[in-house]
Structure formats: structure tokens, C-alpha cells
Amino acid sequence: MSVTLIQVTEEGLEKPLEQASINNQLDALHVDDASRLSQTKTSSGCRNTGVHHVGLHVKDPAASAEFFRDIFGMQLMGGTGSDHPIGATAFLSSRPDQEHHEIALFANPVYAHTAFKVSSLDELRAMYERVVARGIPIRFTANHGCSFAIYFGDLDGNMIEVYWPTGDMSFLDSPTVEPIDFAQSNEALLEKLPSKYRQPAQPASASAIVSRRGQAKYVPAETGPAYWGPGDQITFLITGEETGGAFFLAEVSVPPGGGPGLHIHHREDESFHILQGTLTVQVGGKTIVASPNDFVFLPRGVEHCFKNTGSNDAKFLVLVTPAGLENFFAEAFYPTPDRSAAPPLVTDALLARLVSAAPKYGLEFVPPAKK
């Protein structure tokens, strides 16, 4: 498979990355097969993560599905016949381990739409409340099994879906469209899912808090949006959208042996406060072995890396100033709907996501020195 990666320059222009540059950055992210297999899991605002699929009106969903399968190599994920309540459909994905579908095909034009994804049930609830507050009619809500979703129209009547993936990526021969009652608590809504996909929910009194300066925010333990990268898991506590761009705060969990390779942040400083475990930090040619309650400051523009050199999971708080780096994690890392699940294997696809996203956020991966 040939992949073209794009670099975004400081002037905002896009240009293809040279193959040598791609190879160097992939080398910087290299994790050997043994490390991949040894990885183990440690015990707001309306922040959308972009357009994640489109619903197209087609004459014959089955025939169109063959077109997308044969031309683009997409996998058919399911569909319905003309006798289904929503008519004939087909659903396809090029990355079924991440998105149940990227293209939805409908014989009934009323279901054509563009879909935006959010990272948590609280963010979906916040979006629902934002749309209602603006007087925009909600066309319908739906528990699709693989996602909870709301549907409404834009200024020109085009239908928009906003959805939260539940983590249930099981094959759906026939999508469900059970209505969602947002008057119910998160706990009640999550009861509709299989137990292993029920994320911890915030108390109703803390639901959909949009924090800005002058407003409080409460994040109960293990309820912030979480993402797995190649060697660590990051849980968002408060983002730049909620702090006016001043800072981003998160908790990072690193299994034994985990941690990123050498890299440089060109736009922000990082501050680590160690909560548990042992973290060996390389920064500016110095080695720091940090233990619980230790603090480490990593200035921008200085190459650094960290690794859990202990035998137990390491955890630390990371304060990023100014904010913005959280958008890299949301784009390049994999969402973690089930915190008890094992981390994803470090595949070439994950490494390519990191290399592709990094230049947009002033992040540079440093290749290891040749021996």
C-alpha cells in the first residue's frame, strides 16, 4: 500500500513529505515486535473530532457497495433490504477496527447526511443541549448499537449527524434506531449497552459542563476522554477549548517498558508531576529518574523522551502550556472506549497516523542515533 503523508508548513501550506523524511520519522517511532506483544493495560466542552463518515443517497445500495468495495477496497459492514423501516442501505469501512462505517448508502434520500464524531457521551449530551438551546429542531435521536447519535438540519436543510461511538464494533446486519431520551441519566442510557462497553459516567449534576474561565469543572476519576498511543494512555482532564487556550491538563498512564521515543515540541512547554511508579526522563542530554511526588519541567524546543523503567504502571499529570497538543492526541491516538481493554498493537497504520499528524502541531520525532 502506498501512503502519501502531508506536512503543514508554518505558513499553513501543505506539501508532501519526502520519503526519506517519512522513513526517519518512522524510525523515531519504531517499536520492535517483542515490545508490541509485551504491552499491557493499566488497571465539557462540545469538542468534535471532525467529519468521520458521510451518508449518500444512491439508487441501489447493494450495487453501490460493490463499487466502493471493488474500487477502494472497502469492507461491507452490513446493510438492510427494501423492506426495512429505513429502506435499503449498505455500510462500508476501510478501517473496521476503528470505524464501523465511513460511508453509509441509502435508497431513501431523507437519510443522506454528514456525520461528526465526539469523544464522550457527555460531549454528545452537550451538543444536544447546544442545538436545542439555539432553537434548531432535532429530527431524531438514535441508539445504533455501535453509536449514540443525534440528527438535525443545517441552515440549508442538509442533515447532520453528531455521534459518540460506544465501542461496540460488532458486525451489524441491520442497524438499530432506538430513540434516545436525553432526560435520562448517563447511567440509564449506558444500561442499554452490553456491560463491557459501559463507560463510567459522570454524575448527572456534572453532565455537559462547559468550562471557561470563571466556571468550575469537575471530572470524576476515569471519566475524561481517553486515548491510547504507542506506549502510553492519556486521559483528558481539561482542554484548551475550556481554558481559553491557556493550558491543557491530562493524566498519563504508562505500562512497564512503555513511553515514546525522542521528540521535540516546538510550540509548548510540558510539566510532569509523578503520581506513581518510576519514570526515566531524557531531556537535553540529561537523565532524570523521577519518583512519586517529583516534578519535571520540559521546555519547548528541547528533545526529550520518557520510559517507565519500573515494574508497575507509572502515572503522572502533564500540564501543557499553551494548549493545543490535545488535538494531536485526539487525531493520532486511538480512542479508548473500554479502559479495561488491552492497548492496541503498535502497527504501521498507527505509526503513519502519528507521522501524518505531527507537523500540524509542531511536533518533531527524532530518529535514533545510528550505531
Question: What labels would you give this structure?
Answer:
371 residues, alpha+beta, Jelly Rolls, 2,3-Dihydroxybiphenyl 1,2-Dioxygenase, domain 1, 2 domains, 22 strands, globular, disordered N terminus
Structure description:
- This protein has 371 residues and is of the alpha+beta class.
- The chain folds into 2 domains: 6-45 and 209-365, Sandwich (Jelly Rolls), CATH 2.60.120; 48-197, 2,3-Dihydroxybiphenyl 1,2-Dioxygenase, domain 1 (Roll), CATH 3.10.180.10.
- It has 8 helices and 22 strands.
- The protein has helices spanning 19-28, 33-38, 61-72, 121-133, 186-190, 240-243, 325-332, 348-357; strands spanning 6-8, 14-16, 48-57, 75-80, 89-93, 103-106, 113-118, 138-143, 147-153, 159-165, 226-228, 233-238, 248-254, 263-265, 269-276, 279-283, 286-290, 295-298, 304-308, 314-321, 334-335, 363-365.
- It has an 8-stranded mixed β-sheet with strand order 4-5-6-3-7-10-9-8.
- Strand 1 and strand 2 form a beta hairpin.
- The longest helix is centred in the middle third of the chain and has 13 residues, at 121-133.
- The protein is globular.
- The relative contact order is 0.15.
Short description:
Helix content is 18%, strand content 31%. The chain is α+β, with helices and mostly antiparallel strands and 371 residues long. Strand 9 (147-153) and strand 10 form a beta hairpin.
